[in-house]
Amino acid sequence: MAIDAVVILAGGSSRRFRADKSHALLAGVPMLEWVARAAFAISERVVIAARPGQELPLLADLRRAEVVLDHRLDTGPMAGLEAAFTSLGGGRAFVIGVDAPLLVPGLALAVLQNLDGPEVAVAVPVVGGRRQPLVAAYDVTISLPALSLALDRDERRILTVLDQLTVIEIAEADLREYDPELRSFDNLNTPEALLAVEMRLRAASR
Q1: pLDDT tens-place string over residues 156-192
Q2: Which of 12, 182, 170 is nearest to 81 (CA)?
Q3: What is the pTM of this model?
Q4: 4-205 is classed in which CATH architecture?
Q5: Domain ranges of the chain
Q6: pLDDT per residue over 38-59, tens digit each?
Q7: Burial class (CB in 10 A: 0-12, 13-18, 19+), 206
Q8: How far apart are CA 52 and CA 42, in angstroms?
């Protein structure tokens, strides 16, 4: 039976953010907690990929999550994918970065439904004309060998790996049915982006 899981990539170097994004507060809550809450609304199995030595926020949800460490250092998000997929061993996984705290669970489930067919490796949303591989669903069994081979060759771009696999693209119009404002793709990888979303949330709560 397929294993449905959510993989949270939390081990990035955060160079543009200049701090560990998993600890960054949005409305007083660490971004990792925002993502973990959405993840557990999607699946009972949540795997957090972290880098060796990284201290994650002390969250209640983390006690239910599995934490795996990157096997390869300084190789970007593909290292996290490799470590998490190795831990899962197979099945299907929805992948989300820790800097996408506004993930809508319904969108994630809709993306997972597109991961259908014996050779389909990835169901990837297309937003603004670009594939979004870090808000996407993966067949672990098919994707893992391609990721590992690419890393062996010092290839670190996920989009390059996707070009070698069978991919189903999900159009923006279909995504808006579940997430009208496409909040799931708000990538808060700078302090300025975090502040902008903080201000937007405050305005919406008035």
Answers
A1: 899 999 999 999 999 999 999 999 999 999 988 888 8
A2: 12
A3: 0.93
A4: Alpha-Beta Complex (3.90)
A5: 4-205
A6: 999 999 999 999 988 888 887 7
A7: exposed
A8: 27
